[in-house]
Amino acid sequence: MDTEADLFYRRLPKVELHAHLNGSVSFETMEKLIKQKLHLNIEHSMTAIRSGQRRTLDECFQVFKVIHQLVDSEEDILMVAKDVIQEFAADGVKYLELRSTPREVTETGLTKRRYVETVLEAIRQSKEEEVDIDVRFLVAVDRRHGPEVAMETVKLAEEFMLSSDGMVVGLDLSGDPTVGHGKDLLCALQKAKNCGLKLALHLSEVPSQKDESELLLNLPPDRIGHGTFLHPEAGGSDSLVDKVCKQNTPIELCLTSNVKGQTVSSYNKHHFQYWYNRGHPCVLCTDDKGVFCTDLSQEYQLAASAFGLSQESVWGLSQQAINFTFAPEPIKQRLEKKWAELRPQVLQ
Ligand SMILES: CNc1ncnc2c1ncn2[C@@H]1O[C@H](COP(=O)(O)O)[C@@H](O)[C@H]1O
Fold first, then answer.
1. Which residues form the Adenosine deaminase domain (predicted)?
2. CATH, domain 4-346, list 3.20.20.140, 3.40.190.10, 3.40.50.300, 2.40.50.140
3. 38: CA distance to ligand 1 center in Å?
């Protein structure tokens, strides 16, 4: 049973800004997929990293390959996206920016365009079914696929930004950080920015990305994913920190993901503390709630316990995230109103 403290985090209205669709697939949804595709011989241990387990980042990326085998058709994507949206809503997330990499699968007839359309259909259906959450979509560029694919993806994202009634709001740059260099993707990212897509870029997720981060920070991005190795204590530099601070770029921080993926040695050594203590815009996120077996309530609870945050500070953290969304102003105002209404019930 949930304790009083657990209930506080679950009741806390939350904003999720860094959630990869295929990394967010829950145990229950995975069960359905595994049963439908028994011939693949996939077990749960291959799609999730349980409590107490650790993997290298490289092993995490192997997990995504397994999940992609299970999620390979329009029907799968529709089910996965609807389930993920429903689960975030059940966890008290009021606004969600989901991100995913459009994929084509010849065997099932899936195209990148249908991929995006299907995610948007899932968002639409969830809205029709009155799931209590506002969902937007970021089209993801997998750095592994190089500059040409990146440019194609930007064009697709732009098209949907113009035709999706505000559902597609931006572009994510993600994928294995040890593969490729951001300089090759600069042109595509610049184009995305010029056409009005907001940029959420994974930066300095591993120590070797210092030069890349210097370069990509000049765009500048609208939000930073992870930023684990930006600050000098982690092997980054003052110049990187100066840029991030001058631009006041919010950082999406994913504690469990970083600890389980072993880029951070323990919760209380997480760089959340560095940025939070500076008063820098920080937002707690799940990254891949399915793969890392977490949810956003748990991430808030872990941060509060590792860094001694009061319930009032936790409330402040969740509320300030509204400002870092890529949502238009009226949506932000609606969220502010919701937070004000819920405050007396949550902070007793
Ligand atoms: C752990 N830290 C991470 N760092 C970088 N990229 C990550 C990631 N976690 C997930 N992804 C990116 O998201 C894809 C899975 O979701 P989608 O198929 O796009 O929905 C992965 O293949 C990778 O490109």
1. 13-338
2. 3.20.20.140
3. 24
